[in-house]
Amino acid sequence: MDIYASDEEKAEAIKQWWRDNGRSVFAGVILGGAAIFGFRYWTTHQDVQAQNASVLYQQAAIQMNQSEYEQAQSTVSQLTAEYASTAYAVFAALELAQVAIKKNELGKAEEQLNWVLDNAKLSAHRDLARLRLGQIHLQQSNYAAANDLIQNAETAAFSSMFAELEGDIALAQGKADDALAAYQRAVASMAVGDTRQQLLQLKLDDVAVAHEG
After folding, report:
1. Chain segment 34-78, per-residue pLDDT in tens
2. What is the DSSP string of 35-67?
3. What global pTM score does this model have?
4. Which class does domain 30-121 fall in?
5. How many CA atoms lie within 13 A of 187 on its CB side?
6. End-to-end CA distance of the chain
């Protein structure tokens, strides 16, 4: 705007600018307000979802600790159905699977672990489900399915445990050479201070003796 223009000229210029740009300014204000409202609604919704999921998870944990298995199944089903996007649902499914394994209800354990594979956001959670599914398949002598799970591992954090499982599968099939190699990889990739070290070393020693014999 010309700084030497008269007051009337300035006023007319402002009016003209508003006529040319008023709609876009108004629309921008509306969109900006909607974006702020939408973000606040989304964060509030996420907080409420997490709080509700936390309550159900605590309820399921108590039920599992008190051996209220059927009630725990119902609570975890609600959690995985209504709050599948939360970590609480993943934790509950993993824990319920462990309870089912202890009760030798392997089919129900597989259901929970497969749910984790399909829904967990973190690769570590998916790999933990893979590891436990692989152990179930080994117990069922379903060696091909167990090996497939090992091949699909996503993270290095579980490499030692997957190598150990691979050794267990090979040993169950009478493949001592493959078992020895897998156990050696498991020991090599084991973290310092891992509580599995003594047991894994025993497995390795037993297979090494058999291999030499």
Report:
1. 555 454 544 565 667 788 899 999 999 999 999 999 999 999 999
2. HHHHHHHHHHHHHHHHHHHHHHHHHHHHHHHTT
3. 0.75
4. mainly alpha
5. 15
6. 97
